[in-house]
Amino acid sequence: MATGHTTDIVPNEHLATAPGRLPWRTALATEPAGEPGHTFCYNQFATWTLAEVVRHATGRTVLDLLRERVFPRLGIEHATWDTDQRGRVLGFTGLHLAPESVASFFQLLLDDGVRDGERLLPVEWVTRHRQRHVDTAPAQDDPDWSQGYGWQVWHDTRGGYRGDGAFGQFGVLLPAQDAVLVTTAATERMQEVLDEVWASLVPAFDRPDADAEADAHLARRLASLGLPTVWGERGGPVGLAFENRTNRWRLVDSADGWELRWVDQHGGDNRIPVGFGAWRHGTLRWADRRLRVAASGAWVGWGHWVGHVVALDAPHGLLVRLRDDGSGRTEWVGPPPLGPPSLHGLGVVDA
User: Fold this and answer.
1) How many domains does the chain have?
2) By C-alpha distance, which of 109, 104, 147, 145 is closest to 128?
3) What's the whole-model pTM score?
4) How many CA atoms lie within 13 A of 97 on its CB side?
5) Residue 342 belongs to a domain with what CATH number?
């Protein structure tokens, strides 16, 4: 993050499809406007470059090496990583882990690289990893992003540090509380998440007595949480269809909602179960990957049907709008993925 560049050389469609080392030749040909080693810029391409250096040096992806050498030691059994259109691991984004797996890794950092009495990380590495290596204040406005940057971690306003994932994924180390906090979310208002952590969660560590009634209330509330379904009418029997240059959609009724058939440009021919007033689960499949989804739908106006397809392993959802005049369109709910902007791009590559 201190390459000296002052703008993020984030991968674009052209670079993602370029062969060989051409994306890195293109990026390295961009002359830094600042001072390398001192000028901070959140540069996702620089992180992706590190992943590619590992691949070219070892002949294996970062994910392969993690699965072999790191994850088993931490009890992490399931991990996937998004790739670009040429199958290269996106080193800057798209690593999918369960919250418990994220917590296990950050607990290792909190414990100075030791797990069950065995040192897994050199103490020198752990020390340098958590140090501030570059000042972020000139480039960042939010308080918890302006406290400095270590090795792929942000320092915060409470004396700890954290790893950030896109759209509200956090692994936060709280040294004063000897604790690790992990959150998963789908939001761009990430400072507000941390503000709530500082205001509501951190003070609770210092409360001497547990409140059984409050704990029970919290458990009931958590058990009742869920994404709202699409609001509207069930409607009568229907057969809607829409197609454009890259996709073909067809909607038919089913006993408890609809079935949405989707033929796409990536060779997929999927039938998505869509619930009314409920979420129905399914799996989208292509020749090289798959994606777990849930879907809800409803008639939201005269001749206007909307389906909400949510990826279960990524913070993204897609609205499918179909009308009885044969028109239609799709739109992302919130920001689109950082990688290829498609549900296919979010899919897990089959091993």
Assistant:
1) 2
2) 109
3) 0.83
4) 24
5) 2.40.128
